[in-house]
Automatic annotation (TrEMBL):
The lineage of its organism: Bacteria, Pseudomonadati, Pseudomonadota, Alphaproteobacteria, Acetobacterales. SUPFAM superfamilies: S-adenosyl-L-methionine-dependent methyltransferases. It catalyses: a 2'-deoxyadenosine in DNA + S-adenosyl-L-methionine = an N(6)-methyl-2'-deoxyadenosine in DNA + S-adenosyl-L-homocysteine + H(+). Gene3D superfamilies: 1.20.1260.30, Vaccinia Virus protein VP39. Residues 174-495 form the DNA methylase adenine-specific domain. The keyword Methyltransferase applies. This is site-specific DNA-methyltransferase (adenine-specific). It comes from Acetobacter farinalis.
Length: 537
Protein backbone atom coordinates (compact mmCIF):
# COMPACT_ATOMS: atom_id res chain seq x y z
CA UNK A 1 0.00 0.00 0.00
CA UNK A 2 1.44 3.42 -0.87
CA UNK A 3 2.41 5.59 2.06
CA UNK A 4 1.69 9.25 2.71
CA UNK A 5 -1.36 11.36 1.88
CA UNK A 6 -2.91 10.02 -1.33
CA UNK A 7 -6.64 10.00 -1.88
CA UNK A 8 -7.93 7.41 -4.29
CA UNK A 9 -10.98 9.60 -4.92
CA UNK A 10 -9.80 13.22 -4.95
CA UNK A 11 -13.38 14.46 -4.59
CA UNK A 12 -13.89 12.59 -1.36
CA UNK A 13 -12.94 13.91 2.06
CA UNK A 14 -10.09 12.15 3.88
CA UNK A 15 -10.60 10.17 7.04
CA UNK A 16 -11.11 12.46 10.06
CA UNK A 17 -8.01 13.23 12.03
CA UNK A 18 -7.73 12.28 15.68
CA UNK A 19 -6.84 14.99 18.13
CA UNK A 20 -4.09 13.88 20.46
CA UNK A 21 -3.39 15.46 23.78
CA UNK A 22 0.25 16.10 24.36
CA UNK A 23 2.13 18.13 26.89
CA UNK A 24 2.89 21.76 26.26
CA UNK A 25 6.00 22.43 24.26
CA UNK A 26 8.99 23.84 26.07
CA UNK A 27 9.14 26.45 23.33
CA UNK A 28 6.97 29.49 23.81
CA UNK A 29 3.51 29.41 22.28
CA UNK A 30 3.30 31.43 19.07
CA UNK A 31 2.27 35.05 19.38
CA UNK A 32 1.20 37.65 16.86
CA UNK A 33 4.12 38.67 14.70
CA UNK A 34 6.35 35.77 15.66
CA UNK A 35 6.52 34.67 12.01
CA UNK A 36 8.21 37.95 11.13
CA UNK A 37 10.68 37.61 14.00
CA UNK A 38 11.43 34.06 12.93
CA UNK A 39 11.98 35.12 9.33
CA UNK A 40 14.31 37.98 10.26
CA UNK A 41 16.34 35.65 12.46
CA UNK A 42 16.55 33.02 9.73
CA UNK A 43 17.42 35.64 7.12
CA UNK A 44 20.41 36.78 9.20
CA UNK A 45 21.80 33.26 9.07
CA UNK A 46 21.92 33.13 5.26
CA UNK A 47 24.87 35.55 5.14
CA UNK A 48 26.10 35.63 1.52
CA UNK A 49 23.66 33.06 0.13
CA UNK A 50 21.21 34.39 -2.45
CA UNK A 51 17.56 34.41 -1.26
CA UNK A 52 16.61 32.27 -4.27
CA UNK A 53 18.99 29.58 -3.00
CA UNK A 54 18.48 29.99 0.72
CA UNK A 55 14.68 29.76 0.53
CA UNK A 56 14.93 26.07 -0.39
CA UNK A 57 17.29 25.47 2.52
CA UNK A 58 14.96 27.08 5.07
CA UNK A 59 11.65 25.89 3.64
CA UNK A 60 12.92 22.33 3.29
CA UNK A 61 13.83 22.24 6.97
CA UNK A 62 10.48 23.71 8.03
CA UNK A 63 8.78 21.03 5.95
CA UNK A 64 10.93 18.36 7.57
CA UNK A 65 10.02 19.55 11.02
CA UNK A 66 6.34 19.67 10.08
CA UNK A 67 6.11 16.04 8.96
CA UNK A 68 8.23 14.95 11.92
CA UNK A 69 5.95 16.78 14.33
CA UNK A 70 2.90 15.05 12.88
CA UNK A 71 4.65 11.68 12.81
CA UNK A 72 6.13 11.86 16.32
CA UNK A 73 2.81 12.95 17.87
CA UNK A 74 1.09 9.92 16.32
CA UNK A 75 4.05 7.71 17.25
CA UNK A 76 3.81 8.72 20.92
CA UNK A 77 0.08 8.00 20.90
CA UNK A 78 0.59 4.54 19.41
CA UNK A 79 3.38 3.72 21.85
CA UNK A 80 0.89 4.18 24.70
CA UNK A 81 -1.86 2.11 23.08
CA UNK A 82 -0.02 -0.51 21.01
CA UNK A 83 3.81 -0.29 20.78
CA UNK A 84 3.93 -2.83 17.96
CA UNK A 85 1.68 -0.65 15.80
CA UNK A 86 3.98 2.35 16.30
CA UNK A 87 6.34 0.97 13.63
CA UNK A 88 3.61 0.09 11.13
CA UNK A 89 3.53 2.66 8.28
CA UNK A 90 -0.12 1.88 7.55
CA UNK A 91 -1.10 3.24 10.96
CA UNK A 92 0.14 6.64 9.83
CA UNK A 93 -1.32 6.43 6.34
CA UNK A 94 -4.76 5.94 7.90
CA UNK A 95 -4.36 9.34 9.57
CA UNK A 96 -2.97 11.09 6.47
CA UNK A 97 0.46 11.30 8.08
CA UNK A 98 3.73 10.68 6.25
CA UNK A 99 5.87 7.78 7.43
CA UNK A 100 9.20 9.17 8.67
CA UNK A 101 12.14 6.73 9.06
CA UNK A 102 13.99 6.93 12.38
CA UNK A 103 17.11 8.65 11.01
CA UNK A 104 14.95 11.28 9.26
CA UNK A 105 13.06 12.38 12.37
CA UNK A 106 13.54 15.91 13.59
CA UNK A 107 14.69 14.76 17.01
CA UNK A 108 17.62 12.97 15.38
CA UNK A 109 18.64 16.02 13.36
CA UNK A 110 18.22 18.33 16.35
CA UNK A 111 20.48 16.12 18.45
CA UNK A 112 23.14 16.28 15.71
CA UNK A 113 22.69 19.95 14.77
CA UNK A 114 26.25 20.85 15.81
CA UNK A 115 27.84 17.99 13.89
CA UNK A 116 30.12 18.93 10.99
CA UNK A 117 28.26 16.36 8.91
CA UNK A 118 24.79 17.82 9.54
CA UNK A 119 24.36 18.68 5.85
CA UNK A 120 24.93 15.05 4.89
CA UNK A 121 22.49 13.90 7.59
CA UNK A 122 19.78 16.23 6.28
CA UNK A 123 20.29 14.96 2.72
CA UNK A 124 20.01 11.39 3.92
CA UNK A 125 16.83 12.29 5.83
CA UNK A 126 15.24 13.88 2.77
CA UNK A 127 16.08 10.92 0.56
CA UNK A 128 14.79 8.46 3.17
CA UNK A 129 11.45 10.31 3.41
CA UNK A 130 11.08 10.39 -0.38
CA UNK A 131 11.84 6.67 -0.55
CA UNK A 132 9.26 5.95 2.16
CA UNK A 133 6.59 8.10 0.48
CA UNK A 134 7.32 7.81 -3.25
CA UNK A 135 3.84 8.50 -4.60
CA UNK A 136 3.60 11.90 -2.92
CA UNK A 137 7.18 13.09 -2.47
CA UNK A 138 9.38 11.59 -5.17
CA UNK A 139 11.52 14.39 -6.61
CA UNK A 140 9.91 17.01 -4.35
CA UNK A 141 12.30 17.55 -1.43
CA UNK A 142 15.58 19.50 -1.61
CA UNK A 143 18.55 17.21 -0.98
CA UNK A 144 21.73 19.23 -1.50
CA UNK A 145 22.40 20.37 2.06
CA UNK A 146 25.78 18.65 2.08
CA UNK A 147 27.31 20.85 -0.62
CA UNK A 148 30.39 22.90 0.36
CA UNK A 149 28.61 26.22 -0.18
CA UNK A 150 26.37 25.54 2.84
CA UNK A 151 28.15 26.17 6.13
CA UNK A 152 27.42 23.41 8.65
CA UNK A 153 27.39 25.93 11.51
CA UNK A 154 24.69 27.92 9.72
CA UNK A 155 22.64 24.75 9.17
CA UNK A 156 22.93 23.85 12.85
CA UNK A 157 21.81 27.31 13.92
CA UNK A 158 18.90 27.16 11.50
CA UNK A 159 17.83 23.79 12.93
CA UNK A 160 18.01 25.28 16.45
CA UNK A 161 15.93 28.25 15.32
CA UNK A 162 13.23 26.09 13.70
CA UNK A 163 13.24 23.85 16.79
CA UNK A 164 12.26 26.90 18.86
CA UNK A 165 9.04 27.60 16.93
CA UNK A 166 6.23 27.67 19.50
CA UNK A 167 3.90 24.73 19.15
CA UNK A 168 0.82 25.16 21.33
CA UNK A 169 -1.01 22.39 23.16
CA UNK A 170 -1.86 19.85 20.43
CA UNK A 171 -0.23 18.35 17.38
CA UNK A 172 -2.93 20.00 15.23
CA UNK A 173 -1.97 23.37 16.71
CA UNK A 174 1.71 22.60 16.11
CA UNK A 175 1.09 21.87 12.46
CA UNK A 176 -0.98 25.04 12.08
CA UNK A 177 1.86 27.10 13.54
CA UNK A 178 4.38 25.51 11.20
CA UNK A 179 2.01 26.14 8.31
CA UNK A 180 1.86 29.82 9.24
CA UNK A 181 5.65 29.99 9.40
CA UNK A 182 6.02 28.26 6.04
CA UNK A 183 3.51 30.65 4.42
CA UNK A 184 5.19 33.72 5.92
CA UNK A 185 8.61 32.53 4.75
CA UNK A 186 7.28 32.09 1.21
CA UNK A 187 6.16 35.70 1.20
CA UNK A 188 9.37 36.89 2.85
CA UNK A 189 11.58 35.22 0.28
CA UNK A 190 9.39 36.52 -2.55
CA UNK A 191 10.00 40.02 -1.24
CA UNK A 192 13.73 39.43 -0.84
CA UNK A 193 14.03 38.08 -4.38
CA UNK A 194 12.02 40.93 -5.90
CA UNK A 195 10.86 40.32 -9.47
CA UNK A 196 12.09 36.72 -9.63
CA UNK A 197 10.44 35.87 -6.31
CA UNK A 198 7.09 37.26 -7.34
CA UNK A 199 6.86 34.72 -10.12
CA UNK A 200 6.09 31.95 -7.65
CA UNK A 201 4.11 33.92 -5.06
CA UNK A 202 0.83 35.85 -5.20
CA UNK A 203 0.47 38.36 -2.33
CA UNK A 204 -1.75 37.02 0.42
CA UNK A 205 -4.18 39.96 0.36
CA UNK A 206 -4.83 39.44 -3.36
CA UNK A 207 -5.46 35.72 -2.83
CA UNK A 208 -7.80 36.45 0.09
CA UNK A 209 -9.77 38.82 -2.13
CA UNK A 210 -10.20 36.19 -4.84
CA UNK A 211 -11.16 33.47 -2.36
CA UNK A 212 -13.52 35.71 -0.38
CA UNK A 213 -15.34 36.70 -3.58
CA UNK A 214 -15.58 33.22 -5.10
CA UNK A 215 -16.36 31.37 -1.84
CA UNK A 216 -15.21 27.86 -2.82
CA UNK A 217 -17.27 25.82 -0.35
CA UNK A 218 -17.37 22.47 -2.13
CA UNK A 219 -16.31 21.06 -5.47
CA UNK A 220 -13.26 21.14 -7.70
CA UNK A 221 -10.76 24.01 -7.50
CA UNK A 222 -8.17 24.55 -10.24
CA UNK A 223 -5.18 26.82 -10.89
CA UNK A 224 -3.48 26.42 -14.30
CA UNK A 225 -0.33 28.25 -13.15
CA UNK A 226 -0.35 27.47 -9.45
CA UNK A 227 3.02 28.86 -8.33
CA UNK A 228 3.70 27.88 -4.72
CA UNK A 229 0.06 26.93 -4.08
CA UNK A 230 -1.19 29.94 -2.13
CA UNK A 231 -4.59 29.90 -3.87
CA UNK A 232 -5.19 26.37 -2.62
CA UNK A 233 -4.09 27.06 0.95
CA UNK A 234 -6.43 30.04 1.21
CA UNK A 235 -9.29 28.05 -0.34
CA UNK A 236 -8.95 25.26 2.21
CA UNK A 237 -8.67 27.86 5.00
CA UNK A 238 -11.88 29.49 3.76
CA UNK A 239 -13.72 26.17 3.89
CA UNK A 240 -12.51 25.45 7.42
CA UNK A 241 -13.39 28.92 8.75
CA UNK A 242 -16.93 28.45 7.40
CA UNK A 243 -17.39 25.21 9.33
CA UNK A 244 -16.36 22.85 6.54
CA UNK A 245 -13.60 20.28 6.70
CA UNK A 246 -10.39 19.44 4.92
CA UNK A 247 -11.35 17.60 1.76
CA UNK A 248 -14.62 19.43 1.03
CA UNK A 249 -12.86 20.76 -2.04
CA UNK A 250 -10.76 18.72 -4.47
CA UNK A 251 -7.67 20.59 -5.64
CA UNK A 252 -6.05 20.44 -9.07
CA UNK A 253 -3.26 22.48 -10.57
CA UNK A 254 -0.45 22.71 -13.08
CA UNK A 255 2.94 24.44 -12.96
CA UNK A 256 5.67 24.64 -15.59
CA UNK A 257 8.59 25.58 -13.29
CA UNK A 258 9.84 22.43 -11.57
CA UNK A 259 11.38 24.26 -8.63
CA UNK A 260 8.14 26.16 -8.01
CA UNK A 261 6.14 22.93 -8.38
CA UNK A 262 8.24 21.44 -5.57
CA UNK A 263 7.49 24.46 -3.37
CA UNK A 264 3.77 24.02 -4.04
CA UNK A 265 3.86 20.33 -3.16
CA UNK A 266 5.64 21.07 0.12
CA UNK A 267 3.36 24.02 0.89
CA UNK A 268 0.26 21.85 0.53
CA UNK A 269 1.79 19.00 2.51
CA UNK A 270 2.62 21.37 5.36
CA UNK A 271 -1.08 22.24 5.53
CA UNK A 272 -2.14 18.60 5.23
CA UNK A 273 -3.86 19.29 1.91
CA UNK A 274 -4.22 16.53 -0.66
CA UNK A 275 -4.01 17.71 -4.27
CA UNK A 276 -3.38 16.65 -7.84
CA UNK A 277 -0.67 19.09 -8.96
CA UNK A 278 0.89 18.30 -12.34
CA UNK A 279 4.24 19.48 -13.67
CA UNK A 280 5.63 19.66 -17.17
CA UNK A 281 8.00 22.23 -18.64
CA UNK A 282 5.74 22.93 -21.63
CA UNK A 283 3.00 24.61 -19.58
CA UNK A 284 -0.80 24.66 -19.65
CA UNK A 285 -1.11 25.95 -23.22
CA UNK A 286 1.05 23.41 -25.02
CA UNK A 287 0.41 20.46 -22.72
CA UNK A 288 -2.84 20.81 -20.83
CA UNK A 289 -2.52 18.01 -18.27
CA UNK A 290 -6.18 18.20 -17.22
CA UNK A 291 -7.80 19.03 -20.55
CA UNK A 292 -10.81 16.77 -20.04
CA UNK A 293 -11.71 18.09 -16.58
CA UNK A 294 -14.06 20.95 -15.73
CA UNK A 295 -13.94 22.86 -12.48
CA UNK A 296 -16.36 24.62 -10.13
CA UNK A 297 -13.83 27.28 -9.15
CA UNK A 298 -10.73 28.52 -10.92
CA UNK A 299 -8.28 30.93 -9.30
CA UNK A 300 -5.22 32.09 -11.21
CA UNK A 301 -2.49 34.70 -11.29
CA UNK A 302 -0.87 34.11 -14.70
CA UNK A 303 2.36 35.91 -15.60
CA UNK A 304 1.43 39.32 -17.02
CA UNK A 305 1.69 40.05 -20.74
CA UNK A 306 3.96 37.10 -21.65
CA UNK A 307 5.03 37.32 -25.27
CA UNK A 308 6.84 34.01 -25.92
CA UNK A 309 3.96 31.61 -25.42
CA UNK A 310 2.72 30.95 -28.95
CA UNK A 311 3.26 27.74 -30.91
CA UNK A 312 1.96 26.84 -34.36
CA UNK A 313 0.23 23.77 -32.90
CA UNK A 314 -2.20 26.12 -31.11
CA UNK A 315 -3.56 27.61 -34.33
CA UNK A 316 -6.86 25.69 -34.36
CA UNK A 317 -7.09 25.03 -30.62
CA UNK A 318 -10.73 24.54 -29.47
CA UNK A 319 -10.08 26.70 -26.40
CA UNK A 320 -10.13 29.85 -28.53
CA UNK A 321 -13.93 30.10 -28.46
CA UNK A 322 -13.93 33.89 -28.66
CA UNK A 323 -11.07 34.36 -31.11
CA UNK A 324 -7.44 33.39 -31.59
CA UNK A 325 -5.29 35.27 -29.06
CA UNK A 326 -2.39 37.36 -30.40
CA UNK A 327 0.99 35.62 -30.46
CA UNK A 328 2.61 38.57 -28.71
CA UNK A 329 0.49 38.52 -25.53
CA UNK A 330 -1.01 35.57 -23.64
CA UNK A 331 -3.55 37.49 -21.52
CA UNK A 332 -6.55 36.46 -23.61
CA UNK A 333 -5.17 32.97 -24.04
CA UNK A 334 -5.27 32.58 -20.23
CA UNK A 335 -8.82 33.92 -20.02
CA UNK A 336 -10.05 31.53 -22.71
CA UNK A 337 -8.12 28.57 -21.28
CA UNK A 338 -9.84 29.24 -17.94
CA UNK A 339 -13.29 29.61 -19.50
CA UNK A 340 -12.74 26.33 -21.34
CA UNK A 341 -12.16 24.56 -18.02
CA UNK A 342 -15.15 26.06 -16.17
CA UNK A 343 -18.01 23.74 -15.24
CA UNK A 344 -21.51 24.85 -16.40
CA UNK A 345 -22.14 26.61 -13.07
CA UNK A 346 -18.48 27.45 -12.44
CA UNK A 347 -16.90 30.80 -11.59
CA UNK A 348 -13.33 32.02 -11.96
CA UNK A 349 -11.18 34.82 -10.58
CA UNK A 350 -8.11 35.83 -12.60
CA UNK A 351 -5.39 38.40 -11.90
CA UNK A 352 -4.19 40.23 -15.03
CA UNK A 353 -2.45 43.44 -15.99
CA UNK A 354 -4.69 46.51 -16.26
CA UNK A 355 -4.07 46.71 -20.00
CA UNK A 356 -6.18 43.60 -20.50
CA UNK A 357 -9.30 45.65 -19.72
CA UNK A 358 -8.84 48.11 -22.57
CA UNK A 359 -6.26 46.87 -25.07
CA UNK A 360 -7.28 46.83 -28.73
CA UNK A 361 -3.97 45.56 -30.08
CA UNK A 362 -4.25 42.78 -32.61
CA UNK A 363 -7.39 40.79 -31.79
CA UNK A 364 -7.70 41.58 -28.08
CA UNK A 365 -10.47 44.16 -28.38
CA UNK A 366 -12.51 41.83 -30.58
CA UNK A 367 -12.09 38.89 -28.19
CA UNK A 368 -13.14 41.09 -25.28
CA UNK A 369 -16.24 42.24 -27.19
CA UNK A 370 -17.26 38.65 -27.88
CA UNK A 371 -16.75 37.68 -24.24
CA UNK A 372 -18.92 40.58 -23.09
CA UNK A 373 -21.64 39.76 -25.63
CA UNK A 374 -21.54 36.11 -24.55
CA UNK A 375 -22.17 37.39 -20.99
CA UNK A 376 -19.28 35.46 -19.41
CA UNK A 377 -17.76 38.52 -17.67
CA UNK A 378 -19.32 38.81 -14.21
CA UNK A 379 -17.26 41.42 -12.38
CA UNK A 380 -14.19 43.61 -12.89
CA UNK A 381 -12.07 44.94 -10.01
CA UNK A 382 -9.35 47.57 -10.42
CA UNK A 383 -6.68 46.99 -7.76
CA UNK A 384 -4.44 49.58 -6.08
CA UNK A 385 -0.83 49.81 -7.24
CA UNK A 386 2.24 48.36 -5.52
CA UNK A 387 0.60 45.08 -4.46
CA UNK A 388 3.02 42.75 -6.22
CA UNK A 389 6.63 41.82 -5.59
CA UNK A 390 7.33 41.02 -9.22
CA UNK A 391 5.99 44.04 -11.08
CA UNK A 392 4.85 47.63 -10.70
CA UNK A 393 2.35 47.13 -13.54
CA UNK A 394 -1.16 47.99 -12.24
CA UNK A 395 -3.35 44.90 -11.97
CA UNK A 396 -7.02 44.00 -12.02
CA UNK A 397 -9.26 41.05 -11.25
CA UNK A 398 -11.49 39.40 -13.85
CA UNK A 399 -14.42 37.32 -12.60
CA UNK A 400 -15.82 34.96 -15.21
CA UNK A 401 -18.83 32.67 -15.17
CA UNK A 402 -20.59 30.25 -17.47
CA UNK A 403 -24.02 31.44 -16.34
CA UNK A 404 -25.34 34.42 -14.41
CA UNK A 405 -28.58 32.70 -13.48
CA UNK A 406 -27.17 30.39 -10.81
CA UNK A 407 -29.65 28.71 -8.52
CA UNK A 408 -30.16 30.63 -5.31
CA UNK A 409 -28.84 33.93 -6.70
CA UNK A 410 -30.62 36.61 -8.64
CA UNK A 411 -30.65 36.63 -12.44
CA UNK A 412 -27.72 38.86 -13.42
CA UNK A 413 -27.83 38.27 -17.15
CA UNK A 414 -26.98 41.37 -19.14
CA UNK A 415 -25.13 43.03 -16.25
CA UNK A 416 -21.49 43.44 -15.16
CA UNK A 417 -20.36 44.70 -11.77
CA UNK A 418 -17.48 47.20 -11.77
CA UNK A 419 -15.49 47.86 -8.58
CA UNK A 420 -12.78 50.51 -8.40
CA UNK A 421 -10.56 49.57 -5.44
CA UNK A 422 -7.57 51.67 -6.45
CA UNK A 423 -7.86 53.89 -3.37
CA UNK A 424 -7.89 50.97 -0.94
CA UNK A 425 -4.95 49.32 0.82
CA UNK A 426 -2.17 50.57 3.05
CA UNK A 427 1.59 50.82 2.56
CA UNK A 428 3.53 48.18 4.49
CA UNK A 429 6.88 49.55 3.34
CA UNK A 430 8.15 52.14 0.86
CA UNK A 431 7.43 50.02 -2.20
CA UNK A 432 4.60 47.66 -1.33
CA UNK A 433 0.93 47.97 -0.43
CA UNK A 434 -1.51 45.45 1.04
CA UNK A 435 -5.28 45.26 1.12
CA UNK A 436 -6.50 45.20 4.72
CA UNK A 437 -9.07 42.72 6.01
CA UNK A 438 -11.62 45.55 5.92
CA UNK A 439 -10.75 46.27 2.27
CA UNK A 440 -11.13 42.63 1.30
CA UNK A 441 -14.46 42.42 3.13
CA UNK A 442 -15.75 45.59 1.44
CA UNK A 443 -14.93 44.30 -2.04
CA UNK A 444 -16.28 40.79 -1.39
CA UNK A 445 -19.43 41.98 0.37
CA UNK A 446 -20.22 44.29 -2.55
CA UNK A 447 -19.91 41.39 -4.99
CA UNK A 448 -22.04 39.06 -2.85
CA UNK A 449 -24.79 41.65 -2.44
CA UNK A 450 -24.77 42.31 -6.19
CA UNK A 451 -25.09 38.59 -6.91
CA UNK A 452 -28.10 38.50 -4.59
CA UNK A 453 -26.68 36.00 -2.13
CA UNK A 454 -28.80 35.19 0.89
CA UNK A 455 -27.90 37.36 3.87
CA UNK A 456 -25.56 39.57 1.85
CA UNK A 457 -27.77 42.66 2.05
CA UNK A 458 -29.08 44.91 -0.67
CA UNK A 459 -26.72 46.11 -3.39
CA UNK A 460 -26.54 49.80 -4.29
CA UNK A 461 -24.23 51.62 -6.68
CA UNK A 462 -21.64 53.69 -4.81
CA UNK A 463 -20.20 56.62 -6.83
CA UNK A 464 -16.45 56.32 -7.09
CA UNK A 465 -16.44 52.69 -5.91
CA UNK A 466 -18.95 50.38 -7.63
CA UNK A 467 -21.47 50.35 -10.47
CA UNK A 468 -23.71 47.67 -11.95
CA UNK A 469 -23.67 48.37 -15.69
CA UNK A 470 -25.73 46.86 -18.47
CA UNK A 471 -24.13 45.36 -21.55
CA UNK A 472 -25.56 48.28 -23.55
CA UNK A 473 -23.60 50.69 -21.33
CA UNK A 474 -20.46 48.61 -21.86
CA UNK A 475 -21.02 48.75 -25.60
CA UNK A 476 -21.28 52.54 -25.39
CA UNK A 477 -17.78 52.47 -23.86
CA UNK A 478 -16.52 50.40 -26.81
CA UNK A 479 -16.33 47.29 -24.60
CA UNK A 480 -13.58 48.75 -22.45
CA UNK A 481 -13.88 47.18 -18.99
CA UNK A 482 -11.92 49.66 -16.86
CA UNK A 483 -14.05 50.27 -13.71
CA UNK A 484 -13.11 53.96 -13.56
CA UNK A 485 -15.18 54.56 -16.70
CA UNK A 486 -18.33 53.35 -14.99
CA UNK A 487 -18.21 54.12 -11.28
CA UNK A 488 -17.95 57.90 -11.73
CA UNK A 489 -16.60 60.31 -9.15
CA UNK A 490 -16.91 59.82 -5.43
CA UNK A 491 -19.57 61.98 -3.82
CA UNK A 492 -18.15 64.88 -1.85
CA UNK A 493 -18.87 64.83 1.87
CA UNK A 494 -21.65 67.18 2.90
CA UNK A 495 -20.32 70.41 4.36
CA UNK A 496 -22.65 72.10 6.85
CA UNK A 497 -20.51 75.24 7.28
CA UNK A 498 -22.32 78.28 5.78
CA UNK A 499 -20.79 79.66 2.59
CA UNK A 500 -20.10 83.09 4.11
CA UNK A 501 -18.04 81.51 6.90
CA UNK A 502 -16.13 79.26 4.52
CA UNK A 503 -15.41 82.24 2.19
CA UNK A 504 -14.18 84.42 5.07
CA UNK A 505 -11.81 81.68 6.25
CA UNK A 506 -10.47 81.14 2.73
CA UNK A 507 -10.01 84.91 2.25
CA UNK A 508 -8.05 85.14 5.51
CA UNK A 509 -5.80 82.23 4.52
CA UNK A 510 -5.17 83.73 1.10
CA UNK A 511 -4.20 87.12 2.59
CA UNK A 512 -1.77 85.40 4.96
CA UNK A 513 -0.18 83.50 2.07
CA UNK A 514 0.13 86.70 0.01
CA UNK A 515 1.86 88.40 2.96
CA UNK A 516 4.26 85.47 3.38
CA UNK A 517 4.99 85.60 -0.35
CA UNK A 518 5.79 89.31 -0.22
CA UNK A 519 8.06 88.78 2.79
CA UNK A 520 9.90 86.00 0.98
CA UNK A 521 10.30 88.11 -2.16
CA UNK A 522 11.82 90.92 -0.07
CA UNK A 523 14.36 88.54 1.48
CA UNK A 524 15.32 87.13 -1.93
CA UNK A 525 15.75 90.68 -3.35
CA UNK A 526 17.97 91.71 -0.41
CA UNK A 527 20.10 88.57 -0.80
CA UNK A 528 20.55 89.18 -4.52
CA UNK A 529 21.67 92.77 -3.86
CA UNK A 530 24.27 91.55 -1.36
CA UNK A 531 25.62 89.05 -3.89
CA UNK A 532 25.90 91.75 -6.56
CA UNK A 533 27.71 94.09 -4.13
CA UNK A 534 30.22 91.35 -3.21
CA UNK A 535 30.91 90.56 -6.84
CA UNK A 536 31.39 94.25 -7.67
CA UNK A 537 33.78 94.89 -4.74
Amino acid sequence: MPRGRPRKNPDAAPAPKKTTKTGKSKAATATLGFEQQMFLAADKLRKNLEPSDYKHVALGLIFLRYISTAFEARHAELMLDDPAAAEDPDEYLAENIFWVPETARWSHLRDNARSSSIGKLIDEAMLAIEKANPEQLKGVLPNNYGRPALDSVMLGELIDLISDIGMGDTDDKARDVLGRVYEYFLGGFAGAEGKRGGEFYTPSSVVRTLVSMLEPYKGRVYDPCCGSGGMFVQSERFVETRGGKLGDIAIYGQESNHTTWRLARMNLAVRGIGADIRWNNEGSFLRDELKDLRFDYILANPPFNISDWWNASLEEDPRWQYGKPPAGNANYAWLQHILWHLAPDGTAGVVLANGSMSSNQNSEGEIRRRMVEADVVDCMVALPGQLFYSTQIPACLWFLTRTKAQKGWRDRRGEILFIDARKLGKLVDRTRRELTDEDVARIADTYHAWRGEKGAGTYEDSPGFCKSATLDEVEQHSFVLTPGRYVGAEEAEEDNVPFTERFAALEKTLKEQFAQGEELNAKITTSLKLIVQKESA
